[in-house]
Specification:
Blueprint lengths: L1 H22 L2 E7 L5 E7 L3 H10 L3 E7 L14 H16 L4 H10 L4 H15 L4 H5 L8 H13 L2 H58 L5 H37 L1 H12 L4 H22 L4 H11 L3 H15 L4 H8 L4 H13 L2 H56 L1
Antiparallel strand pairs: 1-2, 1-3
Helix pairs in contact: 1-5, 3-4, 3-8, 4-5, 7-8, 8-9, 8-11, 8-16, 9-10, 11-12, 11-16, 12-13, 13-14, 14-15, 15-16
Main location: membrane
Family: Belongs to the GSP F family.
Membrane topology: Multi-pass membrane protein
């Protein structure tokens, strides 16, 4: 026992020393080796003198030593994205499956990180493991990047002694969920950008182009057609009260976001509304079903109890409506109902999904059936997004052309009218 305690103490001291080194400034150096060859590199140290002394000890002649400049913005690195976590999961799963020790795996992955923030996170996790923590406990330092579902799966893998297999499953899960999120973003990005561009064009024309024409019409004393008069009136209003328009627009967006965050009922209403949208609502619904199926399949295969897994599954659906349904299903399962019966009661899952879950429960292959459902709906989302993109492109062009063309026609109507009088 004394030997184990001493070893643990030494490990913690080594971890503390590494933490101190990671907090030191990094110096870039250029030196000549014994053959006169120019060498360069970087080294953490308290000051430049220590760097020079270390280089001389290695038989090199220091030429320049300067502290690495810190970037003006984002000095701590970019935010750690879910994609970064997915790549990390795949890397560590591959290394552990190849027999590389966990601590060494973290060292290798951290050294290859270009994002300083993620590198620091991985170093902290590694030091916690060296100090005697389990991987699940060490990842708990960063609950945002490694959420409850991720940690629960890791804990199940550690308990069953199949951590490398579970990490591989988690890596696949993260990659699939990020892929489907990317598809949804792709579906939303194009129409939103077209609408933003259209709004910007309209604002520019109302503020800068229409006033020039309005002055010309006024000087000519021409009687303006109704479309042109409406356009001139809108332009005059924008010039006089532009700050109210922009302030109201920004305030409306902020109020909408805040209301969604603070009011559960309002957020629920918006989510239900989004699921009823034509085309887009179907994509969101299929996406929620795909996430539900894959997440529940992963947790079930990892050995996480079904009732316990439901909270994590609810958060992974990406939909408040489906999250509420999963919570209701959890309560039903807790009192002895079958999963397929609970799913049917919600009225949110297609009959095919319910039937496949029923077959999975009866045959003891629930995880396999859930993965098949996930793959089917992920493919459906992918195809629907591709079809939507091909349909939206000409539609958005028509809308943009109609808006801009309508403004141009309205501006030239009085000119055509004046030309007809001669």
């Amino acid at each position: 026992m004394a030997t184990v305690t001493a070893a643990t103490k030494n490990t913690r001291q080594q971890g503390a020393q590494r933490a101190q080194i990671s907090q030191m400034p990094t110096y870039e150096w250029v030196a000549l080796d014994k053959r006169g060859k120019r060498m360069k590199g970087s080294m953490p140290a308290k000051n430049a003198s220590l760097v020079k002394a270390e280089l001389r000890r290695q038989g090199m002649n220091p030429q320049t030593v300067k502290e690495r400049a810190k970037p003006l913005f984002g000095g701590s690195g970019k935010a750690v994205k879910p994609r970064d976590v997915a790549i990390f999961s795949r890397q560590i799963a591959t290394m552990m499956a190849s027999g590389v020790p966990m601590v060494q795996s973290f060292d290798i992955i951290a050294d290859g990180q270009k994002n300083p923030r993620f590198k620091t996170m991985l170093t902290d996790v590694k030091q916690s493991i060296e100090g005697g923590s389990t991987l699940n406990e060490a990842l708990g330092q960063y609950p945002v990047q490694f959420d409850e579902l991720y940690r629960n799966l890791v804990r199940a893998g550690e308990s069953a002694g199949v951590l490398d297999t579970i990490l591989d499953t988690v890596a696949t899960y993260k990659e699939k969920t990020e892929a489907i999120k990317g598809k949804i973003k792709k579906a939303l990005f194009y129409p939103i950008m077209v609408m933003v561009v259209a709004a910007a064009v309209i604002m520019i024309m109302l503020l800068f182009v229409v006033p020039v024409f309005a002055k010309t019409f006024k000087d000519a004393g021409a009687e303006l057609p109704a479309p042109t008069q409406l356009l001139v009136t809108m332009s005059a209003f924008m010039q006089e009260y532009w700050y109210i328009v922009f302030g109201g627009l920004i305030g409306g967006i902020v109020a909408l976001v805040m209301a969604k965050k603070r009011s559960v009922k309002f957020a629920h209403f918006l989510d239900r509304l989004s699921l009823k949208l034509p085309v887009m609502g179907n994509i969101l619904r299929q996406s929620a079903i795909a996430r539900f199926s894959r997440t529940l399949g992963v947790t079930f295969r990892a050995g996480v109890p079904l009732v316990e897994a439901m909270d994590a599954v609810a958060g992974a659906t990406g939909s408040i409506v489906y999250a509420d349904a999963v919570h209701q299903m959890r309560d039903d399962i807790a009192v002895g109902h079958q999963l397929q019966l609970s799913m049917r009661q919600t009225g949110l899952f297609p009959n095919m999904v319910v039937q496949m879950v029923a077959i999975g429960e009866e045959s003891g292959a629930l995880d396999a059936m859930l993965f098949k459902c996930a793959e089917f709906y992920e493919e459906e989302v992918s195809n629907a997004v591709d079809s939507l993109a091909s349909l939206l492109e000409p539609l958005m062009m028509v809308i943009l052309g109609t808006v801009v063309g309508g403004i141009v026609v309205a501006l030239y109507l009085p000119i055509f009218k004046l030309a007809g009088t001669f």
